[in-house]
Amino acid sequence: MRLLPRSLLGQVMLAMAAALLIAQAISATMLYRAATERREMAFMHAAAFQLLSGPRHRDARKARMMRPPHMMPSRRDGTPRVRLPRSLRYSETTRAPLAADAPRDQQREAELARLLRSQGISVGEIAISVQPFLDDPVLREAARDFPRIRALVETVPHEVMVVALKQEGSAVWQVARLPVPPLDRGIPRTLVMQTLILFLVLVGLLYFVLRRITRPLDALAERTRRFGSVGTPEEPLEASGPDDVRRLIEAHNAMQARIGSMLDEKDVMLGAIGHDLKTPLAALRVRIESVEDEAARDKMAATIEDITETLDEILSLARIGRTDTEPEMTELGALAASVVEEFEDMGRPVTLEAQGRIAAPVHLTWLKRGLRNLVTNALRYAGSAHLSILREDGQAVLRIDDDGPGIPEERLAEMLEPFTRGEASRNRETGGAGLGLTLARAVAEQHGGTLSLANRAEGGLRAEIRIPT
């Protein structure tokens, strides 16, 4: 399964989405750390304020009865805040303010010590512990006297930060308690909404811009593909998109017109050459009938026939791809059977094996010509041929096997080039003109496929035409 898109539009959109998500993740991390640091700094200042202002309110607090804790207005995310009465927010004791097993927060202790010293306080010892609300003995006792605090804490779980300070030369611990509310859930929600809005806006704008670029490029690619397969010029493609793409389309239109004109001139020239050569060859064929020596006459006739067939192959090779007709959906087994029947009628040993019904869009005449050339090549060098039609990897495979001597590995690629023969003689019964495999390769490429040659492990040569179905 292909996970990454292959189109320009898909790759740019994926890259943009990945970049946006990475940037937002970095931004979210930085914002979250900044919010956490501000929250932590606020706690430290609040703890320092409680410790510094507590003694000034001690006498007034003794004169009043302890009031129950109450809820403060909710935060932005809807979580209510707990406010402790003044008697719980600050107290003094000579006993250890924290239980022996209470967790200590050494980082906060060092930060608070630095903050208090900056205010001129002589710090002897500091102890800070963050624990569940009801794990603190003082608050647990207060919860028994005030059921409202127990109900509130059970509904909205809070933690409490117990801060204890013993100044130098003093035996009294100053203790401050600050409720620690849950983390503000509004920050992640805001970041998620911000990411979604940015993503929708950027994706929408980028998609609009990219489609304006890729749509004419897609049309240009399809037009180029059609021109490369059939070689027939079409109406000029309408220039659209940005100026760069417009110039590319205009250049393609000019190039296509020029190539089309050259191909038309080539066809005219080849037609004239074929006519000008075949006419004197036909006349020469008639004249040799007056030659009395039968052996010489047969040799001259064979030479004229050889030249005529070579000329036909050259003209056919030049015309491949220059057709206005659309390929027809054809059952390849039936097509191969018709080719095999032609050789059977001539008494040549050719067999056929087809694996089910396999159809593909083909130019019937040209594909038959390519198959004939491959079968003829097998018969020439091996004396027999076996034709198979099968499907592999989503392609139709037309395979011709023989039991001949094969081809040296270093010459396999060379044999597909024009005028290359496996046998040095130019005799058509042995060496041929060296255009049969080249013509078959051109037929395969005309159908968007390939022709390959390989030596069989059991001996002989295997030629395969692979075309998409």
UniProtKB/TrEMBL annotation:
The record's section on Pfam families has:
HAMP, HATPase_c
Cellular location of this protein? Answer: Cell membrane
SMART domains reported in the protein's UniProt record: HAMP (SM00304), HATPase_c (SM00387), HisKA (SM00388)
Q: Membrane-spanning regions, if any?
A: 191-210
**Chain ranges of the Histidine kinase domain:** 272-469
Q: How does the record classify its membrane topology?
A: Multi-pass membrane protein
Tell me the keywords, alphabetical order.
Answer: ATP-binding, Cell membrane, Kinase, Membrane, Nucleotide-binding, Phosphoprotein, Transferase, Transmembrane, Transmembrane helix
Protein name listed in UniProt: histidine kinase
Which organism does this record belong to? Erythrobacter aureus
